[in-house]
Amino acid sequence: MAGIGFELKKLFVGRGVIRRVRAYAYAAVICSGTMLLAIVLLLGIQAQAKHFGMGEHTREVLVITMVYALFLSMMMTSGFQMFLSRYVADMMYQNNLGKVLPSLLGASVALMVPGGVLYGFIISTAEELTLLQKALNWTLFIELIPVWLLMSYITAAKDYRAILTAFLLGVLVALVGGPVMIWLGVDALTALMAALTVGYGIMLMGMMKVLLRYFPFGQGSPFGFIAWFSQTPDLLLTGFLSMAGAFVHIVMMWFSPLGSLVTGVYRQASLFDSAAFYAYLVTLPTNINFIISVEVNFYTAYRAYFSAITDGGTMPEIQLARARMERSLWQEISNLVVVQLFAMVVYMLVMRYWLVTIGFTSDMLHMFQLMCIGYTLYCLGTSLMLLQLYFNDRRGAMATAGALFLANVAGTLWSVRLGPLYYGIGVVLGGAAMYIMALPRLMRYVRRIDYNVYCSQPVFNEAGHDRWKALADRLEEIAARRRGARSGEQVK
Q1: Which of 269, 270, 280, 385 could bond to 400 as cystine, CB 3.0-4.6 Å?
Q2: How confident is the model at residue 122 (pLDDT cuts 50, 70, 90)?
Q3: CA pair distance 80, 82, nearest whole angstrom
Q4: C-beta of residue 381 within 8 angstroms of C-beta of residue 431
Q5: Cα 218 from chain centroid?
Q6: What was the pLDDT predicted at 1?
Q7: How far, in Å, CA of 273 to CA of 249, rounded?
Q8: Between 316 and 289, the higher pLDDT residue
């Protein structure tokens, strides 16, 4: 992700409200595009289901099957997203672009096979759905796996207009397709499921088209990326824990006194789920601000410091660049905190009145407010964790993500015993633990940046047996033999 905001800065050149709105729209798509799409479609599909007279239980079945497909696919890909971001960055640095797209294919297949079997069992338990409806929901789950993974690749393309177009086209088809099919005589549940599946499919194809313009199709084994497992295994766990830690309290509440069974193995806690859904939106200002502000201003100073080292700068020049980098870092962190706290207060005040009009009870409003605070701490903690990864402090980032997950689990278990007044305290404790864990370590790491850059690396690179690299080399050999065999057949 480093430097994405630097490219976005070009979009802010010049004056005009339209130009700035467009730049912020691009930033929103880049940092939270898939999540924003899910939110818009969830609200839109719910409104359409109610408009076309779908019964309450049928609407619950439609929403819960959509949420499970989104949630389980997101959890399955969460570890790979951060890992693949590093892999793509390394391949681009090595100018080995031919290995980028094959890794997307390999990672998708590696997750689709076990994921498809698992979700096939889950959707099969939904007795109210027809075979066609189950197939549509299962297809949606399979589509979502490469969609989530694509977010680790699409930022490298920097074709923001095409990316935004693909997102908007997917939303448009999903929201318009359902009513059109209902008008043609398709039952409402099937029509809305089909529209959602087609909408995500169009978005997937649009983003793939963008990538194919930027990266060559490539050759070799699509599983060559597994050689990086031994180099950055902590990124897999960091990615999973940071994502799971943000939503584990929701899953736990499904099995609390608030939880209920909808169909098959599908559960929900509708009061808590609704409060969490709207509370999560409070993270958007920091997500966007991190891309636009931190990645523009801090990355410039960060790059200048390391360029002074690698390009033979004198010691005074390196020290000056380091001081500027530290000032920029703390200034951007302060700005993130101020902007997010202001956004949280305004959002809570405005949303409180609107949520009452759509039927939120006092308990739901209390849960919403608690989780707004929790998600504010979470997004700030996530920003600090990403900054830890800037300095390659992968152990620190993993500890930060682990603190989030464990504190959220412990806090949620505690809140269930205490009653509704405390529901949502888990994510507050998780976000606080994340922030408390990340900030002091980041400060210590930056204070000792010279040691971490010059002295913490091994003096000699000891090459030992690497089973992941050996497996990747073996797969590469197999792929090469197959290409040779196909070439021979074509010659004949």
Answers
A1: 385
A2: very high
A3: 6
A4: yes
A5: 26
A6: 43
A7: 10
A8: 316
Q: Are residues 259 and 300 in the same domain?
A: yes
Rg from Cα positions in the chain: 24
Q: Range of 123's domain?
A: 1-231
Domain shared by 184 and 295, yes or no? no
Q: Is the Cβ–Cβ distance between 77 and 235 less than 8 Å?
A: no
Q: Is 479 inside a domain boundary? A: no
Give me the mean pLDDT over the 354-361 stretch.
89
Any alpha helices (H) in 184-310, and if so which ranges? 188-214, 233-254, 270-280, 284-289, 299-310
Concatenate the DSSP letters of all residues of 369-380 into one string: HHHHHHHHHHHH
Per-residue DSSP letter, 420: G
Buried b (16+ CB within 10 A) or exposed e, 339-370: ebeebbeebbeebeeebeeeebeebbbbbbbb
Is 216 contained in some domain?
yes
What are 278-294's pLDDT values in tens digits? 999 898 888 777 776 66
Whether residue 375 sits in one domain with residue 311 = yes
The residues facing 263 across adjacent strands are: 266
Helix axes of 17-51 and 160-183: crossing angle, nearest 10 degrees: 20
Q: Are residues 158 and 216 in the same domain?
A: yes
Is the sign of the CA dihedral 399, 400, 403, 405 positive or negative? negative
CB 430 within 8 A of CB 411: yes
Return the H-helix or E-strand segment holding 266: strand 266-268
Let me know if residue 409 belongs to a domain. Answer: yes
State which amino acid sits at residue 196: L
What pLDDT is stored for residue 2 in this prediction? 42
Per-residue model confidence as pLDDT tens digits over 187-202: 999 999 999 999 989 9
Which of 265, 148, 137, 139 has the alpha carbon at shortest distance from 192?
137
Place of tokens 């818009």: 40
Amino acid at 287: N
Enter the pTM of the model. 0.86
Domain count, the chain: 2
Which of 185, 204, 231 lies at the terminal end of a domain, its last residue?
231
Same domain, 274 and 384: yes
In a domain, 472, yes or no: no
Q: Tell me how far apart the alpha carbons of residues 445 and 394 are, in angstroms, rounded to a whole number.
A: 12
CB 120 within 8 A of CB 260: no
Residues ≥6 apart with Cβ < 8 Å to 401: 237, 238, 239, 241, 242, 245, 385, 434
> What's at 376, amino acid-wise?
T
Same domain, 28 and 64: yes
The single residue listed with the structure tokens 């005589």 is: 185
DSSP assignment of 354-372 = HHHHTT--HHHHHHHHHHH
Of the listed ranges 152-156, 298-302, 348-352, 427-431, the least confidently predicted one is 152-156
Q: Fill in the amino acid letter for 441.
A: R
Q: Tell me: do 260 and 213 sit in the same domain.
A: no
Residues 248-265, mean pLDDT to the nearest whole number: 92
Question: Residues 307, 313, 318, CA angle at the centre, nearest 5°?
Answer: 75
Whether residues 96 and 143 share a domain: the answer is yes
